[in-house]
């Protein structure tokens, strides 16, 4: 279901860990800062966001909604087809998971939320 993953933080905006052969390894500090900014989030729905150089559409933003803390995106404009992306807040870090081509956003969101639960147990 998942083909790529990364752990990022907001202070400072930084890539902490990623799948070594994945595209998310190329996440920039600027992309992370825009993704996790609390101000101006409504612009993300209109303008989209770039992750590791890949343009994404924002589908649902509950990243800072207590009890949910997830964001769903979809890559766009790629010859290989679009992919679902989910971001989950885990305490002070965030898990970014990219689904395999054809994976729907709903099941990916549930999988990412489940993965976040395992990570939380380690804190």
UniProtKB/TrEMBL annotation:
Keyword NADP appears in the UniProt entry: no
InterPro entries attached to this UniProt entry: PFN, PFN_sf, Profilin1/2/3_vertebrate
One of the record's GO cellular component terms: cytoskeleton
Highest rank taxon of the organism: Eukaryota
The keyword Cytoplasm is assigned to this record: yes
SUPFAM superfamilies xref list: Profilin (actin-binding protein)
Descriptive protein name: Profilin
Species this protein is from: Canis lupus dingo (dingo)
């Amino acid at each position: 279901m998942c083909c790529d993953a990364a752990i990022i933080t907001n202070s400072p905006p930084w890539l902490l860990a990623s799948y070594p052969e994945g595209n998310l390894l190329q996440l920039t500090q600027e992309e992370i800062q825009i993704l996790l900014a609390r101000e101006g989030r409504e612009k993300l729905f209109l303008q989209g966001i770039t992750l590791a150089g890949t343009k994404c559409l924002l589908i649902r933003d509950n990243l800072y909604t207590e009890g949910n803390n997830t964001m769903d995106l979809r890559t766009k404009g790629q010859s290989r087809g679009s992919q679902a992306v989910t971001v989950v807040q885990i305490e002070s870090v965030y898990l970014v998971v990219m689904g395999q081509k054809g994976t729907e956003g709903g099941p990916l969101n549930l999988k990412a939320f489940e993965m976040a639960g395992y990570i939380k147990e380690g804190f």
